[in-house]
Write a structure and sequence with these properties.
Order of helices and strands: EHHEHEEH
Structural class: alpha+beta
Oligomer: single chain
Strand content: 15-25%
Number of helices: 4
Largest sheet: 4 strands, mixed
Shape: globular
Helix content: 40-55%
Length: about 90
């Protein structure tokens, strides 16, 4: 399972755009890839450490806890990362 985490804050228009890009990207991926992805969202206002680290880079997208990107999310780049993660998981399970 691949975990995509969107770090946000309230009233963040770029966060709304990032959320939509994630949703559209997942909808366009093959089921074997999108079905192996869990999307979570966390506000940096709920965690002092997250706030201190990311306050000026919101929205932030993490894939399996690793930074994928911040500010703007590219559909193509996100799709490639998720497909790569799925391939890696399949090879590991084989």
């Amino acid at each position: 399972m691949t975990i995509v985490t969107l770090l946000t804050k309230p009233d963040c228009h770029l966060c709304d755009v990032a959320r939509e890009v994630i949703d559209v990207t997942l909808a366009d991926l093959p089921e074997q890839v999108s079905g192996a992805v869990e999307v979570t969202e966390q506000s940096i206002l709920d965690d002092d450490a997250l706030y201190a680290k990311w306050w000026e880079k919101i929205p932030v997208v993490l894939i399996d806890g690793e930074l994928h990107g911040h500010w703007r999310v590219s559909r193509d780049r996100l799709a490639a990362a998720l497909e790569g993660s799925a391939s890696k998981a399949q090879r590991a399970g084989a």
